[in-house]
Amino acid sequence: MSTAPEGATPGFLVWRLSMKWRVAVDRAVAPLGLTHAQYALVASLHGMQRAGERPSQRRLADHTGLEPLYVSKLARALEAAGLLERARDPHDPRAVQLALTEAGAEVTRRAIKVVHRLLQQLLAPLGGPDDPRAREFARNLATLLDAPLDPSVDGTEDVGHRQE
Questions:
Q1: How far is the C-alpha of 79 from the C-alpha of 117, rounded, in Å?
Q2: Between vectors from CA 38 to CA 36 and to CA 39, what angle results, nearest 5°?
Q3: Quick one: 40 exposed, middle or buried, by C-beta within 10 A (0-12, 13-18, 19+)?
Q4: For 45-69, what is the mean pLDDT?
Q5: Phi and psi of 90, rounded to 5°?
Q6: Rounded distance between C-alpha atoms, residue 149 and residue 151, angstroms
Q7: Which pTM was predicted?
Q8: What does the DSSP assignment read for 8-53?
Q9: Helix, strand, or coil (residue 159)
Q10: Helix (H, G, I), strand (E, B) or coil at 113
Q11: Per residue in 114-155, pLDDT tens?
């Protein structure tokens, strides 16, 4: 039985799935002292560090899709919790570089395992993460993420203006 109303738009379904995922990840990582947004930050940072990168807050914001100001706020909270270090970029004094501490790397590895199990549950109806349907779903999501969205396109700049 589907929880999506009949005739639901793709936008509504994306919203519902994103909310379902956010709530599930929030609950799953809470015992590790993380929120979903903090998890997105530390998991991304973990992957970037493994690739040899020490990203700036701006680079991490671009990577995660989070606003730079929000990344800064999250980074401060994670720094206060002893999970990451913030340091001035030696090549750009305006930029702040981020790195996980040892404790942060350990918490992140545990969180990644927890979230990976959630992802397996989410993708089970599509045959699991390695099934061709799940890979096609991931490709479709990537295509949608790459599609530009401009709220002013198609005359929406007139929304709220009275037509005479």
A1: 27
A2: 60
A3: buried
A4: 93
A5: -65, -20
A6: 6
A7: 0.84
A8: --HHHHHHHHHHHHHHHHHHHHGGGT--HHHHHHHHHHHHHHHTT-
A9: coil
A10: helix
A11: 999 999 999 999 999 999 999 999 999 999 988 998 888 765
